[in-house]
């Protein structure tokens, strides 16, 4: 859960969110090194007069300032592309469910084990967390790969759970796929992250991560 004044990421509740946090930290390290080098060179140029008055050609220097940016971009691109690939590829999902966005609620369809379909609306009264509690939460088993298919029935929405590191646009007439893995038991919240009309702020998402036994009992209810 986010808290008031929070500046960083929410605590990770999935392996993917942990990977995203690691990629972010690595990018910040590379950016810090690049900015430090640039500031050092600029400071030297400003404080040392005439340091380049005899500089006519410098092939080595040209090679360095062409090679270092290429290396820096490679250090940023490789983990980023790997992270994007892992977010969308489901190798052997334990189950799949479909998310359909509507103005202004979510519909969920479980078709692997039973014809389970339900709508999820925000609770307006007697809710534990304001604007986040719903009447019907989606449930997944812990430590299992879950494939989520996201689409929309009217306008563009976005199904987002920040602590799990997942965000996918719900586009009418198109199915988007993402992978969801819950590594900690509990309830995790999100909201629609695409402006979709007057009640855009009232489309919360709640994901309950359960043990396999509790999940099977939930399916049978």
TrEMBL record:
Membrane topology: Multi-pass membrane protein
Cofactor(s) the protein requires to work: Cu cation
CC annotations in GO: mitochondrial inner membrane
Residues passing through the membrane, by range: 26-43, 63-87
Pfam family, one: COX2_TM
Record's catalysed reaction(s): 4 Fe(II)-[cytochrome c] + O2 + 8 H(+)(in) = 4 Fe(III)-[cytochrome c] + 2 H2O + 4 H(+)(out)
PROSITE patterns the UniProt entry points to: COX2 (PS00078), COX2_CUA (PS50857), COX2_TM (PS50999)
Molecular functions per Gene Ontology: copper ion binding; cytochrome-c oxidase activity; oxidoreductase activity
Zinc-finger listed as a keyword: no
Cofactor note: Binds a copper A center.
Localisation per UniProt entry: Mitochondrion inner membrane
A biological process from GO: ATP synthesis coupled electron transport
Segments forming domain Cytochrome oxidase subunit II copper A binding: 92-221
Limits of the Cytochrome oxidase subunit II transmembrane region profile domain: 1-91
Keyword Electron transport: yes
Signal peptide residues on this chain, from the entry's feature table: none
Keywords: Copper, Electron transport, Magnesium, Membrane, Metal-binding, Mitochondrion, Mitochondrion inner membrane, Respiratory chain, Translocase, Transmembrane, Transmembrane helix, Transport
Physiological role: Component of the cytochrome c oxidase, the last enzyme in the mitochondrial electron transport chain which drives oxidative phosphorylation. The respiratory chain contains 3 multisubunit complexes succinate dehydrogenase (complex II, CII), ubiquinol-cytochrome c oxidoreductase (cytochrome b-c1 complex, complex III, CIII) and cytochrome c oxidase (complex IV, CIV), that cooperate to transfer electrons derived from NADH and succinate to molecular oxygen, creating an electrochemical gradient over the inner membrane that drives transmembrane transport and the ATP synthase.
Subunit structure: Component of the cytochrome c oxidase (complex IV, CIV), a multisubunit enzyme composed of a catalytic core of 3 subunits and several supernumerary subunits. The complex exists as a monomer or a dimer and forms supercomplexes (SCs) in the inner mitochondrial membrane with ubiquinol-cytochrome c oxidoreductase (cytochrome b-c1 complex, complex III, CIII).
Record-stated family: Belongs to the cytochrome c oxidase subunit 2 family.
NCBIfam families attached to this UniProt entry: CoxB
Protein name: Cytochrome c oxidase subunit 2
Originating species: Haematopinus suis
Designated gene of the protein: cox2
